[in-house]
Amino acid sequence: MAPSFSHDVVVVGAGLAGSSAALALARRGNRVALLDRASFPRPKVCGNCLHPRTWKIWEQLGLADSFRALPHTDIAGFDIQCEGRPVHRLDFQAQGPRSISRYVLDDWLLGHAREAGVEVFPGTTVTAVDAEQGTVRTSGGEFRARLVFGADGRNSLVARQARLMPPPRRCHRVAWQATLLAPLELDRHVYLQVFEDGYFGYCRFGDDGAVVSLVLDARRSADPVAAVRRYLPHLPEQEWLRMSPITRAPARPGRDRVWLVGDSAHVMEPFTGEGMSFALATGLLAAESAAPALDSDRIAPALADYTRKHRSLYNRGAWVNTFTRWILGEPQRLTHLLRRVPFPRCALDLLSRQIQLA
Length: 358
Ligand SMILES: Cc1cc2nc3c(=O)[nH]c(=O)nc-3n(C[C@H](O)[C@H](O)[C@H](O)COP(=O)(O)OP(=O)(O)OC[C@H]3O[C@@H](n4cnc5c(N)ncnc54)[C@H](O)[C@@H]3O)c2cc1C
Fold this sequence. Notes:
The chain is α/β, with parallel strands linked by helices. The chain contains 12 helices and 18 strands. Strands 1, 2, 8, 9, 10, 11, 17 and 18 form an 8-stranded mixed sheet that branches. It has a 7-stranded mixed sheet with strand order 6-5-13-14-15-12-16. The protein has a 3-stranded antiparallel sheet with strand order 3-7-4, with no helix packed on it. Strand 9 (126-130) and strand 10 (135-138) form a beta hairpin. The longest helix has 17 residues, at 299-315. The protein is globular and about 60 Å long. Flavin-adenine dinucleotide (FAD) binds next to helix 1, strand 15 and helix 7.
């Protein structure tokens, strides 16, 4: 007897990767369930800077006008400082990243997925997944689908349950984030401060917000307020959100009926501000590669296609992120380098232009 599926695809995680995949699948006429343990809108540890390579994704999804209407700040350049000393300032010639609240952006995309016919299940925590059967056990009951997309972020339960996650490596770094009202003197640059315990980015977002996103080596410092106040002494009292790990070895993108998208498969070093664009791109890639698996249950060739495209996406321009990850894995490496005078500014120029344009 043919197995009975409640949905064509169950997507676990309604962040940018999950919502973009669900939206694209629903537009192709598939029956899609999108589950998230959170209720939206929800906060998210992030630097909020969206890479300009995502503009074409909004166009592909027919959302370009709606995206432009979201409250945002167009970032005018980077300002890199080392232990409070200015090192490098770059003003973008072309359009740079746009900073937008994740509270707003993720909820906006989820709303469009819902409008496209995706059945959304907020407050639903996934507890177990069977990759051969396509079953997903949750706090709200069981789902069964031809394909299960794991879009549940860097600590992906779906990746672990499907045995796609490599053995864990110890990561000593922890991320923190605080949002505040932007002070008048804060211009439209991203201020990147590098110091021996880690680094942080500070920029405007939306209409009048500012965000501090910080990565700290927990062996050297566990106090985000003390770390940031050394360089921003007037930072007001804030609630700090915490997240870990910062880095993780990539997982295999899929096995049988379970495919991974976004951070669940591959986590980028936050410094280069690219994680959201990769999350969105893999969401669309997976939806596109899934078509033959959904039309005729030919899963293996569809997964091979997705795996190939996924690999090639991350290989393109990955040297910048890999280099940044290596040098920031031990932040003292960068501070030692930046203390040297004169520092080869052309190298920093090349690096920041790669981040911007890659
Ligand atoms: C400090 C820091 C700064 C960053 N700054 C930037 C930046 O400026 N620009 C940029 O592009 N990227 C940045 N990133 C990276 C970016 O935030 C991520 O790459 C991006 O959010 C990944 O999206 P996602 O949809 O894959 O996962 P997520 O956004 O993490 O979404 C995962 C979703 O899955 C849900 N979930 C998890 N487990 C379960 C479960 N068991 N059951 C149900 N639901 C579940 C969660 O509630 C969540 O909504 C930064 C990251 C960090 C840590």
